[in-house]
Amino acid sequence: MIKIKELYKKFGKNEVLSGLNLEIGEGGIFAVLGPNGSGKTTLIKCLLGMVIPNKGDVSVLGENIKKDSNYRHKIDYLPQIANFPNNLRVKELITMIKDLRGKTNLDQELISLFKLEPFLDKKLGNLSGGTKQKVNLVLTFMFDSPLVILDEPTSGLDPISLLRLKKLIQAEKAKGKTILITSHIMSFVEEISDEIVFLLEGKIYFKGTITELRDKTNQPDFEHAIASILTDNHV
Amino acid sequence: MFKILKYSFYDLMRSRWSYVYFAFYLLLGVVLLFLNNDLSKAVITLMNVIIVLVPLIGTIFGVMYYYNSKEFTELLLAQPLKRSSIFLGQYLGVAISLSMSLILGLGIPFVFYGLFMSNAIWDFSLLLITGTFLTLIFTALAFNIALSNENRIKGFGYAILLWLFLAIIYDGIFLMSLIIFEDYPLDKLSLIGTMLNPIDLSRTLILLKLDISALLGYTGAVFKQFFGTNFGLIVSFSALTLWVILPVLRITMKAKKKDF
């Protein structure tokens, strides 16, 4: 699904990714973890072509992403902070994205799943953070693409929406999709992910299942396992 | 690109500022034409306003629009769209909506004044054409500045400086150099100097179309000889077109390499 070879990225003097290699197969939920500033968002933005790497190759679904932008038809991306044009209405935003990406009928289903009907005619500038995140989720899941990338999907969501999101993610996984998630909420990651990719100082420190991680670090649970990696590496 | 252009254009058409800008030109046109009976004087006053104001509004609006729609741009970047079409679409959206405010705002009062029957139509069309060129040029320059500066305060600062330089300081330096080197033949130098600044070029083009170039004395005669001919007109419009194309090319180049 995703192949990354020797990826380097510097912002000024700050080297964020230093020779990262990663291969992600088809199907399943992969959590990308790491301390603040370890390069999670940069990695994701490299996949999307929003950040241009200094060196290295990235291919998604067998296509090198440098060639053109069409591979993004196969990616659904949820950005970290949902900031939309403020004077646009929710309905208009959804129609616009549909106009840009192609037709879909899934939006109605998702709108009713997240109970967004009363907000459709409101301007995006007047919505609360959580509601914006729900709109963000609708825009992301609307297109049924084989690769889904979620950057902090849980931020601002109330417990009931969080439950709905988890169900939605599981349903997408059942369709055979590959789902990439970053999150700082360990219980969410533990509950939902099949595999962990742990980033540290711009490289992959660990890739495997949660059980493997616990065995490797000799810790009784997932949270302590992560904590022990961080303390062992003086982060 | 046209879809982005459409949405940027709608977005701007909905904003209050487009209407303020449009209303300003409408008012200016009405006042100058109906309260002042001399058409050529009205055109000269309009020229003075356009030459200074259009570049200023173009730079400020361009920079402001870019920074304000940053989040939206990021949303678009994750979609299967080419980078160049995103930025060119936004650029054209801003430039076209500004040009429309200018053309409609000044055009409507002129139509009511009975422009189509007057022989000032060519002077007036030239005024609108150069105004549109200036909008295209300065919006493109503004996008260049905004793309190169993450910090919006810096971006605004550079944009204002650019306008100040081309609208005022350039003329000062130009005049000073003419005075200092007055012992030498300067006609070529002054022609080239005029070509290199789109504001000066537009001003000269309009002035020489009006029958006041006689006031400019010897220099006026040299200029008239050049700009007044078809060859001069073609060269000047090519220079203006080049002033549009080069910044637009840089927008696409810069956009391709930028990280978001």
Automatic annotation (TrEMBL), chain A:
ATP-binding as UniProt keyword: yes
Record InterPro entries: AAA+_ATPase, ABC_transporter-like_ATP-bd, ABC_Transporter_VariousFunc, P-loop_NTPase
Keywords from the named record: ATP-binding, Nucleotide-binding, Transport
MF terms in GO: ATP binding
Location of the ABC transporter domain: 2-226
Domain of life: Bacteria
TM region(s), chain numbering: none
Residues making up the signal peptide according to the UniProt record: none
Pfam families noted in UniProt: ABC_tran (PF00005)
Name recorded for this polypeptide: ABC transporter ATP-binding protein
UniProtKB/TrEMBL annotation, chain B:
Transmembrane parts of this sequence: 20-36, 42-67, 88-112, 124-147, 159-181, 226-249
The keyword Protein transport belongs to this UniProt entry's keyword annotation: no
Keywords attached to this entry: Membrane, Transmembrane, Transmembrane helix
Top-rank lineage group of the source organism: Bacteria
Protein's name in the database: ABC transporter permease
